[in-house]
Amino acid sequence: MTTYARIVATGSALPARVVTNADLEKVVDTSDEWIRTRTGIRERHVAAEGETTGDLAFRAGQQALKDAGVKASDLDMVVLGTTTPDIIFPATACLIQNRLGANGCMAFDVNAACSGFMYALGIANNFIRTGQVKRALVMGAETLTRMVDWEDRQTCVLFGDGAGAVVLEATDAPGILATCLHADGGYKDLLYNPVGVSVGFKDEKNHGVRINMKGREVFKIAVKTLDALVGETLTAAGMQETDVDWLIPHQANLRIIEATAKRLGISMERVIVTVDKHANTSSGSVPLALDTAVRSGKVRRGQNLLLEAFGGGLTWASAMIRY
Ligand code: ACO
Questions:
Q1: In tens digits, what is the pLDDT along the chain, a chain of 323 residues?
Q2: Which of 2, 18, 159, 219 has the most CB within a 10 Å radius?
Q3: Which CATH code is given to the segment(s) 4-172?
Q4: How much distance in Å is there from the Cα of 7 to the middle of ligand 1?
């Protein structure tokens, strides 16, 4: 009998503070009109001073566990997709594992930039399918606004903070049907943060932590790559475009999302869009969108969900899920 990983429950968390496009007009030379028409973003949540990625992920994870009716002590795995960990080590997943009371099980972070949650989901899925793990807490969380250069209008308008989580359980009935994970490190220079432990915390221009992005190039590659990824995911799951009930995409840019929906031949009514409210929360984006869709009653049990993400690395990843 085949063992599948099924999503038992979801959760999410957002910082309380909302920063609108109008607020950003006061910080950099931009306009609400430019941001809305180029990206679809209207506002984003920004973490309070002292509020960390781990705090957001902990809240999302706690909510998912509560809704799943699963005790933290019954978890075999805690995994967090993030590129903005609380501290360098231990992994933020270890800090969360301790706060939840899941001590003893494996816990680690995955850094795949915006694809971090999808990578974490793919890894957890395979641990469950091979029988090594029965229950996993999989999270994606970021405080990306901490590495934003608030003087760079090309990037500071794009990002927000947030977290999402799912509880996975081993079952005999279909759950996650396929996952596809990819990267091409040759594209590193299109989207990266140049500083870190081993190279030092300042770049050659004496800048500290800062997102560098060639937006136009990333946009073009994202559309093309996601187009191919959608086809690959359908084939891996043995499905057609018409089998997809909901597309739950990475929330970076509404125009990229619309291009993927067009490729699938589905209307925007079958696409979960949260980029207007959350902006790009990197690893937090897909699980946040999933939880929003579940809580709104849009996503229902038995439906087929296509999740995908694209980000720095470059990385790209997807999952076809029977919810
Ligand atoms: N306000 C006003 N004008 C701006 C702003 C702004 N905030 N930012 C840029 N502009 C200007 C530019 O200077 C440029 O002016 P010019 O023509 O006089 O030179 C003009 O607007 C057009 O700039 P483009 O960069 O060509 O604008 P584009 O339509 O490509 O939109 C954007 C930019 C939104 C960044 C888009 O390229 C994009 O979404 N790219 C993909 C981002 C993405 O998906 N990243 C992956 C995930 S992120 C991660 O992994 C961490």
A1: 899 999 999 999 999 999 999 999 999 999 999 999 999 999 999 999 999 999 999 999 999 999 999 999 999 999 999 999 999 999 999 999 999 999 999 999 999 999 999 999 999 999 999 999 999 999 999 999 999 999 999 999 999 999 999 999 999 999 999 999 999 999 999 999 999 999 998 877 777 788 999 999 999 999 999 999 999 999 999 999 999 999 999 999 999 999 999 999 999 999 999 999 999 999 999 999 999 999 999 999 999 999 999 999 999 999 999 99
A2: 159
A3: 3.40.47.10
A4: 35
Assess whether 105 carries a catalytic annotation: no
- The yes or no reply on domain 177-322 and CATH 3.40.47.10 is yes
286 vs 141: CA distance, rounded Å: 10
Minimum CA distance residue for ligand 1 atom 39: 253
Domain boundaries, the chain: 4-172, 177-322
Residues with CB under 6 A from ligand 1: 30, 34, 38-39, 113-114, 153-154, 157, 191, 215-216, 218-219, 222, 252-253, 256, 280, 282, 310-312
pTM (global) more than 0.85: yes
- Concatenated DSSP letters of 45-102: EEPPTT--HHHHHHHHHHHHHHHHT--GGG-SEEEEE-SS-SSSSS-HHHHHHHHHT-
114 is an active site residue: yes
Annotated catalytic residue 250: yes
Task: Tell how far the Cα of 237 is from the centroid of ligand 1, in angstroms.
Answer: 35
For 119, 225, 256, 263, 267, the CA distances from 241, given in Å and listed in that order, are: 23, 17, 18, 9, 12
Residue of the CA atom closest to atom 12 of ligand 1: 154
